[in-house]
Amino acid sequence: KDKPKTTTSGDNASFRFWDMDVGTATVARFLPDGDETNDLFWVERQVVKLPFDGVVGGDFPTNKKVEVTVPCMNMFGMECPIQAETKPLWKGSPAEVATARIYWKKRSFIFQGFKVSSSLVEENEPENPIRKWVINKSIYDIIYNSLMDPEFTMLPTDYEQGRDFKITKTKQGEYANYGTSNWSMAGPRSLSDFERDAIDKYGLFDLKQSLGPKPDADGIEAIKAMFKDSIDGNPFDMESYGKYYRPYMNSNDSASSNSETSTTPIRELKEDAAPEKPQQ
Length: 280
Fold this sequence. Notes:
Elements: E1 6-7, E2 25-30, E3 43-52, E4 55-56, E5 66-71, H1 81-86, H2 94-102, E6 106-118, E7 130-135, H3 137-147, E8 165-168, E9 170-172, E10 175-177, E11 182-183, H4 193-202, E12 204-205, H5 217-231, E13 236-237, H6 238-241
Parallel strand pairs: 1-12, 4-13
Antiparallel strand pairs: 2-6, 2-8, 3-5, 3-6, 6-7, 8-11, 9-10
């Protein structure tokens, strides 16, 4: 087939399946990456969330707690200064381990594909039906491990013999759980005419564009300085760091700045809130 077009625009392209009710499901059909050099059909995103005790400077100073999402440089094949600084804390006191957990990198995996069906009704569904899917590690592990099965002979993104993936939301304790998600038991499904026409019309996303830009030397120094201020309990200094990143709140407070300028922060699923201790 002809080489697919590639698009890098997004807006509300991400489908927020995590907002669906417990006990319901969403069926997705994943597609290849628009970047044909990527042999996978996803990219891994690694970020660090820096908490601050308020904001000073700028148009929206506040004493309420905010977060700033910064890229983990490991994502670009470089040493992450935050992970390097906090690594010794994992061998320290319980309080130091708790601090290390706060600054441990959050991993998510970005796919693209169609929403085949869902219990979740969107108010502002985008015109382009090809959606981005921000997948947490528990769902990713199901996808990855199944692909390692020798009986899984056809890529699920194949236009003719691919498979749909069913994301099922349950609850484990107080947290959302997606452990029963899996590939459709109905077997292979050829893409519909509607889906093929959408690919022809809109093209496929170049998924690496969703990782955000790689910080330059000044940007890395800003990340180091922000981390120091964060761990020292200082507020976010808009005059010093505002040109690089923006703080945001996990609330409806009007003082919250536009989170999209903070390398498009991804809302982490609650089950990923307590990452496991990294290998030493």
